[in-house]
């Protein structure tokens, strides 16, 4: 049917061309753009830019209509896009301040430490992509996402000023993948790419509706680390898409499509022979050298280990695999998106010592932590219903994992979390709310002793002023709690202060704008 439609379009185009020649009284000369397009000398019509690496050409087996042109046989669509986002925020948390050092001490660096509640932020991103179609109908292409990196190291005299700080910022590759697709056999993506949970969800069932980012590591969660609640649900989350993997999506049949993904580990295979640029010790408790990952010899800390004695070696997943099914359909004025996925993996074998002293759990009587972890084994389901501008959605995840795609320690509790959201869209205006709650192991030293709970709720709005120009605002509240764990100092069990700061809360108000181009 699709080939017939394409042939019909081609025939009509030919007929139109012949008729135009017959009736034309004089040749019409169409002039191209004047000036240098790459030198800012040509003004183009405003369109809604695709400031994202996942596009309507590479996100499922069949091309979709959207912001990017669909390639036709023998053509390639190349796009270079970017965004600059600026924000003003106010943060208030129970970890805003603490006393550093021993009260009454005259030693240096003692006294109260307090974080300013006001911050201004900026970040920039670049997106490059190519979408081609061969003359036989094969579609293929690639996408690259480059982001701005940040550092908090501004204490030295060399970088304490604004100029010194900006010179520490870098660019890095966040996503990079190739793909090949056919309407009749599906789509393959390979590289640093979203898995099937990210592709099936696409931020819809997990309540991601404004430029601020809501609960998925959103900009309002730019708070002291232990305060921030993990984004359990993985859709468009860095820990889900950040490893090198292969993903397959089947063609859609009656609204259903099937997905599969596989990754040998949680990193990039080039790490096998890469030097450690920071010259850091790669494992504690078992001295395996500094400065080299696997370049001269296999060491603890290599990203492609199958076994190792380092305290964090056993926490890495191996042979990470996921399968899932999605449904997309419309029933009159009602739209429905639903999916389910199951993900599982092996794990690196921990070969180090298992004594309490070696594992750092001498202050935790009753701890069942052994240094070993279980492989991933969890399910994720999500659904969203849209009617007349309203979308109501929910997502749930549960099984053997610990927070955002980390392995659960052997003998530790599993994870259970859910999120509910609602939004309303009317023309350029969006308003919505999203909340989440989850229970998980948290601090592995407290295996068998306590578990962690995280809760968060975000209310936000966005207004699209013009193509590519958006403004938004959000309020966020969140809290994290775990018994026998000082979430500020990290003390656990019977250590001094472990019974304090077991619960942290945070609030944020943020307004921002973004220009996509």
Features of this protein?
517 residues, mainly beta, Porin, 16-stranded antiparallel beta barrel, 5 helices, disordered N terminus
In short:
The protein contains 5 helices and 20 strands. The chain is mainly beta and 517 residues long. It has a single domain, classed as Porin.
Element layout with pairings:
Layout: H1 2-23, E1 75-93, E2 97-100, E3 111-114, E4 118-133, E5 139-148, H2 162-166, E6 171-182, E7 186-192, H3 196-201, H4 238-241, E8 244-249, E9 256-263, E10 307-308, E11 317-331, E12 334-347, E13 349-350, H5 356-359, E14 377-387, E15 390-400, E16 415-426, E17 429-440, E18 452-466, E19 469-482, E20 503-516
Parallel strand pairs: 10-13
Antiparallel strand pairs: 1-4, 1-20, 2-3, 4-5, 5-6, 6-7, 7-8, 8-9, 9-11, 11-12, 12-14, 14-15, 15-16, 16-17, 17-18, 18-19, 19-20
**Order of H and E elements:** HEEEEEHEEHHEEEEEEHEEEEEEE
CATH fold node name: Porin
Taking the sheet with the most strands, its summary is: 16 strands, antiparallel, barrel
Spatial order of the strands forming the largest sheet: 1-4-5-6-7-8-9-11-12-14-15-16-17-18-19-20
Mean pLDDT: 87
The oligomerization state is single chain
Beta-strand fraction estimate: 35-45%
The domain tally reads 1
Count of helix runs: 5
Low-confidence stretches: 1-28, 154-159, 276-292
Give the CA-CA distance, first to last residue.
36 Å
C-alpha geometry: globular
Question: If classified by CATH, what would the architecture be?
Answer: Beta Barrel
CATH class, named Mainly Beta
CATH superfamily: Porin
The proportion of residues forming helix, as a percent range, comes to under 10%
